[in-house]
Specification:
By secondary structure, the chain is α+β, with helices and mostly antiparallel strands. α8 runs parallel beside α11, α9 crosses α16 and α12 packs across α13.
């Protein structure tokens, strides 16, 4: 009897909610107590679940990946709101406005973080009527974010949190992060001693590891200067560290401990292993000189973005194995017509930076070669560790560290 009453109570509880709860293990290992059928959440359920799902489109103002970090005005604002209510943020990239609205109404997302206007939504009227516009707005253009109507607590929280000056603040924050001012480094000369044929104090390491991967050590030196201007303690806002500006996630992938990421030899050695990985990924490019251009571009802008540009080049009748052709589509990935093309899988990218990166390294490499610098012209005892002293970085041997 008690067993039957217990089962009846359990059934009544499930029926009262309209669904059964189940534990879902997300791909990244987080266990969420969520609902079956994609039921959408109001503020209380979002906080209890510990996550808010942002629906948006790829783009320079909405959301994009930059060197492994997330940027975009709407992303930055949504992250601030998530921080405000104490939950994590998950981004769901959609193909178009219609998909964003459909997912919102179907309960697959909590907020559309994108400029929407009821005047320009080419959707059935019943869909538009199910939206509540709130939070970040551009009042003159009647643009704003949207949540599903009826989620009054979420609407109230977004409206209370948002201040119009947040738009300018977020843009200024992003501008700073994308500028050279966000990189902490000491700028050294691109050539230490032209007459003696010395580029830097790390020439011995460039030669040693350049030989292992069959790269001209002067090319490796040119890349290093582009990354850090030969400062072993350089660090970017995104977390890239050391001479070759290795991201923590990449360091973990390569087995480089964070305790060693600022050690010149360890940093250069790990970077060359990563270059080898990238070169293997571009094994379909037979010309090695061309292949190195693609490797350098991927080191800066990400392998997947470069593959997107290659697919665009092929689609438009260009040579997908020629950097001259592909670099044009790397630049075009900054335009909606191209980063929303069906063959593009990873969306918007800041292509001008990547194209400039490859060009800058190539020009500096030519400079080093034109200066008559040959292999073997380097300091005989290349230092392995760097030590900060009185605001400047001086290089020291292992035996002197800590003194």
């Amino acid at each position: 009897m008690f067993f039957m009453l217990g089962m009846l109570a359990l059934f009544s509880a499930c029926a009262g909610n309209g669904h059964e709860k189940e534990l879902i293990v997300a791909p990244w290992g987080v266990v969420n107590d969520t609902t079956d059928g994609g039921a959408s959440f109001d503020l209380e359920q979002i906080i209890a679940n510990g996550e808010i799902i942002m629906l948006t489109l790829s783009g320079p103002e909405s959301y994009y990946d930059y060197k492994g970090r997330h940027l975009g005005l709407h992303y930055l604002l949504c992250q601030k709101f998530a921080d405000k209510i104490g939950v994590s943020l998950r981004i769901d990239l959609c193909r178009d406005t219609a998909e964003m609205i459909r997912k919102l109404i179907d309960g697959e997302g909590d907020v559309v973080a994108y400029w929407l206007s009821p005047d320009v939504l080419h959707l059935p009227i019943d869909s538009v009527e199910r939206l509540a516009f709130c939070g970040p707005t551009k009042s003159k253009e009647r643009l704003g974010w949207a949540v599903e109507k009826g989620h009054d607590a979420l609407v109230k929280a977004l409206d209370k949190w948002f201040r119009p000056q947040m738009l300018a603040e977020a843009k200024n924050e992003e501008g700073f992060l994308l500028s050279s001012h966000s990189v902490k480094r000491h700028v050294y000369a691109p050539m230490q001693d032209r007459h003696k044929g010395i580029i830097s104090q790390f020439d011995g390491l460039f030669t040693k590891y350049g030989q292992k991967i069959r790269w001209d050590w002067r090319l490796l030196a040119a890349q290093c200067y582009q990354e850090s201007t030969f400062d072993p303690y350089a660090k970017s806002w995104a977390g890239a560290c050391g001479l070759m500006q290795i991201m923590p996630s990449t360091a973990s992938h390569l087995g480089l401990p964070m305790s060693e990421i600022f050690i010149p030899e360890a940093n250069i050695e790990a970077a060359t292993r990563y270059l080898v990985e990238l070169e293997r990924k571009f094994g379909d490019i037979p010309d090695r000189s061309e292949r190195i251009n693609f490797v350098l571009a991927s080191y800066n802008g990400g392998y997947h973005h470069i593959r997107d540009a290659m697919r665009l080049a092929a689609k438009n009748g260009k040579n997908e194995k020629s950097w001259k052709d592909v670099s044009q589509y790397v630049l075009l990935l900054a335009e909606p017509q191209y980063y929303r093309d069906p063959v593009v899988k990873y969306g918007y990218m800041r292509g001008n930076e990547t194209v400039g990166y490859v060009s800058g390294i190539r020009k500096r490499w030519q400079l080093y070669r034109g200066a008559g610098i040959q292999s073997g012209n380097f300091l005989p005892n290349a230092p392995r560790k760097a030590k900060h002293q009185k605001g400047k970085y001086r290089l020291v041997d292992d035996k002197n560290v800590g003194k």
